[in-house]
Amino acid sequence: SQQGEEDPQALSIQEGENATMNCSYKTSINNLQWYRQNSGRGLVHLILIRSNEREKHSGRLRVTLDTSKKSSSLLITASRAADTASYFCATEGAQKLVFGQGTRLTINP
Amino acid sequence: GAVVSQHPSWVICKSGTSVKIECRSLDFQATTMFWYRQFPKQSLMLMATSNEGSKATYEQGVEKDKFLINHASLTLSTLTVTSAHPEDSSFYICSPRRPSTDTQYFGPGTRLTVL
Questions:
Q1: CB-based contact (8 Å) between B98 and chain A?
Q2: Closest C-alpha to B30, from A79, A49, A109, A95
Q3: Closest CA relative to residue A37, chosen from A108, A109, A100
Q4: Smallest Cβ distance to B104: which of A40, A88, A97?
Q5: What is the pLDDT of residues B85-114, one digit of tens each?
Q6: Per-residue pLDDT tens digits for B19-61
Q7: Pairing of strands A103-108, A10-14
Q8: Max CA-CA distance within chain A?
Q9: Do B57 and B34 touch, CB atoms closer than 8 A?
Q10: Whole-angstrom Cα distance, residue A58 to residue B86?
């Protein structure tokens, strides 16, 4: 079963702008992870944030986690055309990862 | 990161045939293997979880007699789609779990097209 819901489902922005994607989940988690997937390709792990963490950075990525609201956000700053992909959050609980519905991000040059 | 391979990377088969997909964790022993399915423009859906030497646990709505999972060794798991039909056409992704770090890694996926 799918636990996470992401919004927006699709996002189209101009190169250089920031992109924000949100993820909400329903049950308690150990950690939340974000992945990227280019069309028809495998998953690329971006970042993991543990349930006791509130914010994490990795390069142009910033992830926040609010366990009281059961939500997370992924911010990509200074977007590039190469960032065009689908982005998924995945929550880990009961020792398995469950994926959200994903956000299709398009960066227009 | 860990190296996970899947074979084949893509396969086209006729309706009614069976297809076997192999997943190997090349540099660690995976006591637990997860299999996901992804339909076009959708997210990954967990199909089943298998522990080495045990029967797989299937998610609700996934037919265990149709999707046979074998996890006979710590580095190899197979998913067999039996009597495949066009609606089984999908992207199948394995995900071994590294016990020492409790981290899930993902294979590159196998694209199955059933004609």
A1: no
A2: A95
A3: A100
A4: A97
A5: 999 999 999 999 888 877 889 999 999 999
A6: 999 999 988 888 899 999 999 989 999 999 998 878 899 999 9
A7: parallel
A8: 42
A9: no
A10: 41
> Going by C-beta distance under 8 Å and a sequence separation of 6 or more, which residues neighbour residue A22?
A6, A7, A71, A72, A73, A74
d(CA A108, CA B18): 42
Of A4, A9, A1, A12, residue with least CA distance to A83: A12
User: What is the interface size between A and B, counted as CB pairs within 8 Å?
Assistant: 45
Closest-CA distance, A26 to chain B, in angstroms, reads 16
pLDDT band at B72 (very low <50, low <70, confident <90, very high): confident
C-beta atoms of A43 and B93 within 8 A: yes
Based on its alpha-carbon atoms, the radius of gyration of chain B, rounded to whole angstroms, reads 13
Closest by CA position to B7, among listed B72, B104, B86, B78: B78
Residue B22: which H helix or E strand, with range?
Answer: strand B19-25
Predicted pLDDT of residue A3: 60
Amino acid at B23: C
Instruction: Give just the sign of the alpha carbon dihedral B49, B54, B55, B57.
Output: negative
Q: What tokens does B96 get?
A: 């071994």
Q: In this predicted structure, what is the pLDDT of residue A64?
A: 98
- Find tokens 């089984």 and name the residue: B88
Q: How far is B58 from chain A (nearest CA, A)?
A: 11
Q: Does A71 touch chain B (CB under 8 A)?
A: no
Structure tokens at A83: 């960032």
